[in-house]
């Protein structure tokens, strides 16, 4: 049987599932689930995803999300790869963690958002992992009912709850009632069109036209690397623009090696966190090995956590990054050539400023060994 098509476009919403190989567990302890949630948040930030609902089951997970950019495949691949590598290292596992590629079904929010979120949150009850869906800690159900602060800052339950009422408390009460009323509900995904899309007849007609327009299997599959690169959430150049706007430092200072200044490790940290590029690609920007990026970004994260003044500065930079990201999303969606924020046009999303001049740090040099100091993080500015 041929694999279902993966259709990606700006503003598309999806139900995502991914299962462990041979249906083996992908979570062995709460520590694993917390790590997955952390990496899910990182993915959502990096690829500008909006998370509507999630549920982590013993051998698979469910996500309901929206992609303002047409970059679903790249984002979920990054999530699965990052978590699988971490789990294999932590649990001393060998081989594949996930079974094949992830499954995705396009969803029409207005028609199926409520039913789909209910289905996701009721999964633990069907598996007899909990008597009530809100008793299960590893789904977004408690966030919907206001029973805890968000474990996932990128989660947006308001989108579904607003379909009941603009007032949050009546909306939560109605959602709780539906969790009880529809405890034995059928899988709404059974109504999907060819395992590709779920929605009203008009929505399915639109998707059917897209499918019929695909002239060949090669064209029907994933976007090419060039297409995906054009959809990335934000480029390193835009991150540097945000750092410069808030701190007043130049791009040369971010790329340079001047000791006693935080700009270089700050840039590495922000590019690793926000840009949809790998560590090797980030290393090319600074002319260093990928291990240098990982090490310096980690050290900067520790410094941020212990330095209130630095944390406030980075918060301001990330606010600016969010503004640039929103402007770029709007620019790409409208097809305009220039971003709405910033004085200079954004380079291609896969592009980056030229690498810093001077000798490159080598793998295994003192900066890539945690026992040594690496870049000086004297954070006085």
Helical content band = 40-55%
Strand order of the largest sheet: 2-3-1-4-5
Gross morphology is globular
Q: How many beta-strand elements? A: 5
Please give the count of helices.
Answer: 16
Described by strand count, sense and barrel closure, the largest sheet is:
5 strands, mixed
Report how far apart the termini are.
Answer: 61 Å
Structural class: alpha+beta
Assembly type of the chains comes to single chain
Which residue ranges are poorly predicted, with pLDDT under 50 across at least 5 consecutive positions? 215-232, 337-352, 357-376
Radius of gyration, whole Å: 22 Å
| Strand coverage percent | 5-15%
Descriptive overview:
With 381 residues, this protein is an alpha+beta fold. 48% of the residues lie in helices and 8% in strands. The chain has 16 helices and five strands. The protein has a five-stranded mixed sheet with strand order 2-3-1-4-5, sandwiched between helices. Helix 1 packs antiparallel against helix 2, helix 11 packs across helix 13 and helix 15 crosses helix 16. It starts with 11 loop residues before the first strand and ends in a 47-residue tail after the last helix. The relative contact order is 0.11. About 14% of the residues have low confidence.
Topology, please?
Blueprint: E1 12-19, H1 30-47, E2 50-56, E3 60-67, H2 72-91, E4 103-107, H3 109-121, H4 123-126, H5 141-144, H6 158-161, H7 168-181, E5 197-198, H8 201-213, H9 217-220, H10 225-230, H11 236-247, H12 251-255, H13 263-274, H14 279-286, H15 290-306, H16 308-334
Parallel strand pairs: 4-5
Antiparallel strand pairs: 1-3, 1-4, 2-3
Helix pairs in contact: 1-2, 11-13, 11-16, 13-15, 14-15, 15-16
